[in-house]
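Quick check before the chapter quiz. The format below is the same one you will see on the exam, so make sure you can read both the input and the output lines.
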Amino acid sequence: MQYPTFFALLLSLGLTCGCGKKPAPPPPDAEKGADKDKGKVTPPPVDEATAWRTKQLAALKVKEDATRRVAIDELSWLVTEDAETGPALVEMLKDKGTNGPGRTLANQINSTREAAATALLKAGPKGETLLKEKGLAVLREGLNDASPAVREHSAYTIGQIGAMAKSLSPDIQKLCTDKDANVYGVAFDTLRVTGIADPVAFVKLLKHDNEDIVRLAAELIALIPDMPQGAIGTLAEALTHANTNVQTAAANGLAAAGPKAAPALPQLIDAINKYYPKEYDPRAPRVEGIENALWLALARIGADAVAPTAKLLEHTNTTVKSEAARTLGAIGAPAKSAKDALKKALTDRTINVSGEAAVTLCKLGEAQEDAVNLIKQALGVTNDSVAAFAIEAIMRMGDAGKPLIPLALEKMADANPYTRFAAVALVGKLPPAEAAKHAVEVGKRTTDAEPDIRRLAARVLEQLGLLASPAADSLKQALAAEKELDIRDQFVEVLIAMGPSAKPALPALLPLVAEKGLIASLRTKAIAAVVVADAGSPEVAAAVVKAASDDDKAVRAAAASAMGLLVPLPPDALNALVKMAKSDSENVARVAAYRALTAAGPRAKPARGEIEAMSTGPQPALAFWGKVALAAVDGDVQKASPLIRAGLTDRNAAVRASATEALLVIGPTTADLPVLLKLLKESGSTARIAAATAVGRLGAVAKDAVPQLTRMLDDSESSVRLPATEALGRIGSEARPAVAKLKELARSDQLVKATAQRALDKIGTK
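Here is the expected output.
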């Protein structure tokens, strides 16, 4: 017997089944507790609702993850239907059962209290209210438990709850000095979600005796948006720490304080003098993080920092001089008082110094003619990276640098690779309509001898999208010749972004569709690219129909999606879709076929009878898709909107997954964001993938999804990491908390690195 059906039946009959009512009193014999035959107490009868609730609550204590997740799902519904389930879950937040010390793993339920909290969260407003009003107090008690494992798992559970648990931040912060490493480790992680309650006290952790605690504290300093005055002294002192990570954290903290950090100027200048050697040495080790942080702190302090920064223009190390000039430019108008020192720096023999002085003088409106002439002369230097520096400087010079842009763009085919790289990068900084005029030249760089220039050219062209069409012929040649996997991936992404303008590249794309030894992720992108390039091509139709019988399920699914976009939809393609929807051995391919029939809409009309039959099939998730497809075939998929949005909160997990994917067809709105945030935490990857894609489409408004999307970057499946990465890029600058993890993926994850780099570009990370 499946309880949900029975429970619904009881409700329809109006029987008492735990919905806020007490069960009927026991019969007299049971009340007396007498059993004349056996001499034992006879328990009162237990109704089906109570038995089912008890069974699911017990399952939360089982350490097997799948069992817990099924129970969480069922209990999340019972919270809204059964008045006793919510309080029972709050009570279970006290349960001390865990998977053990150190067993707080991402995408896994690690304790009974985490399971109970997750069920309440999934229950919606009613469960959230219970958590706020009663649950958080219970979890606070867990933070003070004598058992380290209980403290650890309580803190971890609070982190999973998210911003709602912000009121517990002071209690979490106290655990940052816990004696148990597992406890304080989780506490620091949880503060990333709840925020730091007392910045002054937190900054003092940089002086802790435990170096591990110091390290963890240093990692979080940058998350404090407004550093209070009371923390300045400690941060200034931390600039002298032996560990460069701590120094970096201190400088970032001072930058967050802004003008309030002026009392720390002597220590900042001293730190710069100690960090940089007296003379520039290219062999000397450099730490980008601390360099950026030290100069950023000076820039944020502002007017008070002008004089000591200008003094650094007299330093003997050229890097210090160039960074000082650049920092004065970042300070802005107050730096006009340093104009004489900057004019003197124009005569420096090192382009990094004189060039930065030129840029800053242009920003300040001082000595612009001399500054422009200096940069113009640098453009003509053929050795080293002088011309490259000049090209990069032009856009930072503002209006004064605009006359130099044509001269810089002439360098795109320069013999010096640094110069070529800078010229291609310059195109990416131009307004789209202006940049499009140079698409042909950028396209030629897709066959450059330098891999980094080919990568950059692809990124610039993808940024141009449809405007990059003049580069299609160059991309055809480049794609056929490219050996680097990630660059080939980027080229295909460019062609997808170009849309029908990519048609000239079809001869290079079509072989990728059929290349069996090629990585599946690239083949699926190639399939998407060919149909975007020419949806009416018989060759494209034949290629995707053939791919529909491939051994790889991802390729079959991609082929199905492509067939749904063919115009016209050939009979053999429609037949292949119907066959796949009915009988493919892999559910991912079957669902893709349903999605494709939906995308085809009226073009799939000849198969309407079969689709209607599928809409009443025995599998709820597939039948759901059949109903959506039927609305599309009949001419208006938006008529399925009520069905789709109701499906997002369906009791059946498979239906929820299908509804989340279907939401992408009708288009998510900001009103869908609350339920999408919950779907990001589903156990099944299908719902999480679709939810990530949906929140990405919402852009910056979906910033509350950033913590969970960042967790998804650690998922074992690349099919989950990819959409999470793309979503973070679409969210843009609000996704900055994910930058460190995205950089890690860009360095080490072969399958995601190109997507991670695109995301970093969109977020605005240098």
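If your answer matched, good. The radius of gyration is 31 Å.
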